[in-house]
Design brief:
Blueprint: H1 6-18, H2 28-34, H3 42-54, E1 58-63, E2 66-71, H4 75-87, H5 93-103, H6 106-120
Antiparallel strand pairs: 1-2
Helix pairs in contact: 2-3
Length: about 150
């Protein structure tokens, strides 16, 4: 997965924060307006969105002469993919995972336990009442991971 530059990240933050999953998306003008304080030209925002579309980070649909943009994947799916990519940088994946697990807070550890328990189909206090919808995004693919832009199975 390609890392995002500062402006690309700002644009994606607008899309993730403004565009609900059921939305038809937003126009370049709406993104530019949401980036208030940055004083960016319309064409700059249009170029960034076009590049993000080329990278598979956003989906776009024609609406008259304009395009409407929306994120191709959730912020959480993107971050999960970045974490998985970091594990591929070399060395021992197991050692990196152990180091990561030892560095999280107690609350974060509980979230991980609940997600792993849900994934394994375990029952217990963390999984009564069904899996937390926020924890059901699977990341699968040829190497056990799903590309960030691909929809999660539910």
């Amino acid at each position: 997965m390609t890392r995002l530059g500062d402006l690309e990240r700002a644009v994606m933050d607008v899309l993730w924060d403004v565009v609900p999953g059921t939305s038809d998306g937003v126009t370049v003008r709406e993104v530019a307006d949401a980036l208030e304080g940055r004083e960016l030209a319309y064409t700059t925002v249009m170029t960034v969105l076009d590049r993000l579309a080329g990278k598979g980070m956003v989906q776009r649909e024609r609406e008259g002469r304009a395009w409407r943009y929306r994120p191709a994947a959730s912020r959480e799916a993107h971050i999960a993919q970045l974490m998985l990519d970091a594990l591929d940088l070399g060395g021992s994946r197991d050692a990196a995972l152990v180091r990561f697990a030892r560095s999280v807070t107690g609350t974060e550890a509980e979230v991980l336990r609940a997600a792993l328990g849900s994934e394994a189909g375990l029952t217990g206090p963390a999984s009564t009442g069904g899996p937390d919808p926020e924890l059901t995004d699977r990341v699968d693919g040829p190497t056990g991971r799903r590309p960030a832009g691909e929809a999660a199975e539910r």
